[in-house]
Amino acid sequence: LTIPASVTVGDPVVFDWQAKDRSLAVTAGAGASVQIVIIVRPDTKHATAELSSAIGEKGSIRWHLVLLGPECDCTLTSTVAGSDARSDIDALLYARHADAQRVAVTNLFQAPGGGGEIGIKAIAEHKAHVTCRGMIDIGLAGRGTNTFLTEEALMLDPTARVDAVPGLEIKTNDVKASHSATVSRLSAEELFYFASRGIPEAQARTMLIDGFLTSMVRRIGNATLESEILALIATKRGLKIGRN
Predict the structure, then answer these.
(1) Most CB atoms closer than 10 Å: which of 45, 166, 174, 211?
(2) What are phi and psi of 51, to 5 degrees?
(3) In this predicted structure, what is the pLDDT of residue 139?
């Protein structure tokens, strides 16, 4: 997919990812701008995605990865190839039962004055396993880069697993770069707090899931698409054990 120089794509470009071992490369020319949304639906059994992007001078790409399938493996490398370009990556993962989801995303800065952020939010329930790897790589020509990486994960059961691995590699001076990772568990004290206010555990979990993920969905900025994704999250939340 190539976005010509100086072209701004107004609506997000959406890919309903339903295949295993599939790739997508996106190029944004100088001054071009585009949003790419990758959706793996809850009923997609296996999904593997090899994604990449290259951004020209003063161009921008924003990726939104929505991984809801029981078995997902998604890799993305976004390269800031031109000066004063921007690469932003949002990733949302929601795993239940025995799901296995993995995402590995990299912002690679190879030109001066680049910017962008990586934001990852993940939820694991029951015996699900989620792996989140985020990487900021600033090359020798990446002076003046301003970037950060945030990974946030929530485990709703003691048997759930989350591996959150942030990375930062800087090969030049005069940059602003930071990274963080937070993994939280749903505690008995939190459930007691909800129960003391008349909120049963099932409803409390629903409230936590919706509150945690909705802010990431809203970053897309398209009301129709956001509503569709929130509906898919509700569908995922309602899946019974054995349907995966």
Answers:
(1) 166
(2) -115, 150
(3) 97
Which residue, among 79, 25, 24, has the nearest Cα to 47 in the 3D structure? Answer: 24
CA angle 111, 113, 117 (to 5 degrees): 95
* Mean pLDDT along residues 14-33: 93
Q: Which of 61, 96, 58 is nearest to 77 (CA)?
A: 61
Residues whose CB falls within 8 Å of the CB of residue 244, separated by 6 or more in sequence, listed in order: 70, 96, 97, 98, 99
Instruction: Give the start-end residues of each E strand in 68-140.
Output: 71-80, 86-95, 100-109, 115-124, 129-138
Q: Are 73 and 40 in contact (CB under 8 A)?
A: no
Tell how far CA 88 is from the center of its chain.
Answer: 10
Report the C-alpha gap between 204 and 198 in whole angstroms: 10
Q: What is the CA radius of gyration of the chain?
A: 18
pTM higher than the cut 0.85: yes
Q: Alpha-carbon dihedral of residues 70, 208, 217, 53, nearest 10 degrees?
A: -50
Does residue 50 register a pLDDT over 50? yes
Listed in sequence order, the residues at least 6 apart from 127 whose beta carbon sits closer than 8 Å to its beta carbon are: 97, 98, 157, 159, 160
What lies within 8 Å, CB to CB, of 209 at 6+ separation is 94, 123, 156, 233, 237
What's the distance, Cα to Cα, between the start and end of the chain in Å? 32
